[in-house]
Amino acid sequence: MAERASLQAEIHRCLDRYADGHRLSPRQWQVCAHIGDCRTAALGGFDWVCDACGHHQHLYHACRDRHCPRCQRSASEQWCARQRAAVLPVTYYHVVFTLPHDLNPWVEAQPRLLYALLFEAVWATLSTFAADPHRTYWRLGGRLGMTAVLHTWGQTLTRHVHLHCLIPGGAIAADGSWHDARSTMLFSVRALARHVRGGFVGRLRGAADAGRLERIEPGQVDAMLDRLMRTDWVVYAKPCVSGAETVVDEIVRKWAGATATARH
How far is CA 12 from CA 44, 70, 164, 175, in A? Predict the structure, then answer.
């Protein structure tokens, strides 16, 4: 019987040959090793025995690597179910914020810090825009909602850090009432890009001044921040015509490179 197609099977079959012509980083080797060993004797295992009938079953440990499709499948399905249950009967918008690739070496050196700063800058930007009734097409004047998923790789398996945001078309006012969006157009993507760029660079400057950029040479900081402010950041936005549930599924389908989620 033919072996069932899986990422693990392809790693066993092709990794050595692929590595002959391509350079893999230590982290990439580590992830491949985790996926290759997942639920095999290499990770050890444990026995289940029924006290009533004596049935015995041996199970192997999972690698629990976030890149492993076998380990993430259950978590992804549970997350999808929770998001679908929370969807409101309003139009949703799918917004994607992308970090410039100039930052990739810093992401490699300080991933947790830079990912956290991206979440903070994006949420601060969106909530600021929603709270100001004179700033945006929506003219909401309230508190926005957001579900966000961070992806760290692109479809070609190259470093491509971007934050997917699912945003309901409305906001909660100070008196607790719901304000629907007054336009089918989301906030200006150009304004979003400029605001999140300034917010992220400001937070990165604060982190540098506080000594939190531990693996970055001090002389590189000013040049990098100047380069980031001269770069046009990429923001993508469109309404979810086919429904928010479709976007939830699409985000999770690409979740092999995701690292974190957040709800506000």
Answer: 18, 15, 32, 59
Condensed to tens digits (0 to 9), the pLDDT of residues 2-18 reads 556 788 889 999 999 99
Q: What is the pLDDT of residues 209-234, one digit of tens each?
A: 999 998 888 889 999 999 999 999 99
Q: Which of 204, 199, 196 is nearest to 222 (CA)?
A: 204
Residue 54: inside a domain, yes or no? yes
Please check whether residue 12 is in contact with residue 5, taking contact to mean a CB–CB distance below 8 angstroms.
no
Q: Which residues of 170-188 are buried (b: 16+ CB within 10 A; e: fewer)?
A: bbeeeeeeebebeeeebbb
Give me the residues paired with residue 55 across strands.
Answer: none
Q: Is residue 1 part of a domain?
A: no
Are the CB atoms for 80 and 248 separated by under 8 Å? yes
Residue 114 in contact with residue 99, Cβ under 8 Å? yes
Tell me the two tokens of residue 6: 């899986």
For helices 26-37 and 7-21, angle between their N-to-C axes, nearest 10 degrees: 150
CB 163 within 8 A of CB 80: no
For residues 188 and 135, give the distance between their C-alpha atoms in angstroms, rounded to a whole number: 10
What residue numbers bound the domain in which 104 lies? Answer: 72-263
Number of domains in the chain: 2
